[in-house]
User: Which sequence fits this backbone?
């Protein structure tokens, strides 16, 4: 051993996680309000908050190849095309 006076490390060292996009740390209410000045998207808050822990979790599950998967809209009950487009644009613009 090089330094016998130091105890051996027993816990493996993990590689640092990639930095999380700060926009993915927004609380759901702030995220929804920020996407839509008319506040129509707030109607989805309770359902999203009840089913997901964070915006980062939504991103990990549903964001792929630069787009939000259609399953996100099915799972959250977002049916209006205009609302879907707002979410799609937000993810495209903020999650590259």
Assistant:
């Amino acid at each position: 051993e090089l330094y016998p006076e130091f105890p051996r490390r027993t816990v493996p060292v993990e590689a640092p996680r990639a930095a999380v996009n700060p926009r993915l740390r927004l609380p759901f209410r702030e995220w929804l309000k920020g996407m839509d000045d008319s506040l129509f998207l707030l109607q989805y808050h309770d359902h999203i908050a009840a089913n997901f822990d964070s915006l980062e979790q939504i991103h990990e599950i549903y964001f792929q190849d630069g787009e939000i998967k259609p399953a996100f809209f099915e799972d959250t009950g977002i049916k209006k095309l205009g609302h879907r487009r707002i979410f799609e644009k937000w993810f495209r613009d903020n999650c590259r």
